[in-house]
Amino acid sequence: MDRVRRISSDLLSKYPDKFYPDFERNKKTVNELAKIRSKVLRNTVAGYLTSYIRKNSNQQKVNDGSLESEDVEPSKTVTHENRRE
Question: Which domains does the chain have, with CATH numbers?
């Protein structure tokens, strides 16, 4: 896994605008930019990049406040008045 992270971080630092939250697109991009002979390693790197990009985009949405919170009923707490004995 360290090799996957190293390759992914190298690719992201050199080409930060080339990767998207789409696995198929990232797979083609990794194939074009890196000389990886192994299909399994290429797909693993593309999958790692995809999940990394998705996590970062979701985190940015949360930080920007653009995710709307769902209307959730607060859980009822048991107090002394409504507790049955």
Answer: 2-64 (1.10.60.20)
Q: What would the two tokens of residue 1 be?
A: 């896994």
Query: Is there a contact between 11 and 33 (Cβ–Cβ < 8 Å)?
Result: yes
- The token pair at 51 is 């999940």
CA-nearest of 23, 28, 29 to 11 is: 29
Task: Find out whether 49 and 8 touch, Cβ atoms under 8 Å.
Answer: yes
Residue with tokens 């990049």: 49
The per-residue pLDDT for range 24-68, each reduced to its tens digit, is 999 999 999 999 999 999 999 999 999 999 998 888 888 887 555
What is 5-67 written as a DSSP string?
A: HHHHHHHHHH-TTS--S-HHHHHHHHHHHS----HHHHHHHHHHHHHHHHHHHHHHHHHHT-S
Q: Are 46 and 30 in contact (CB under 8 A)?
A: yes
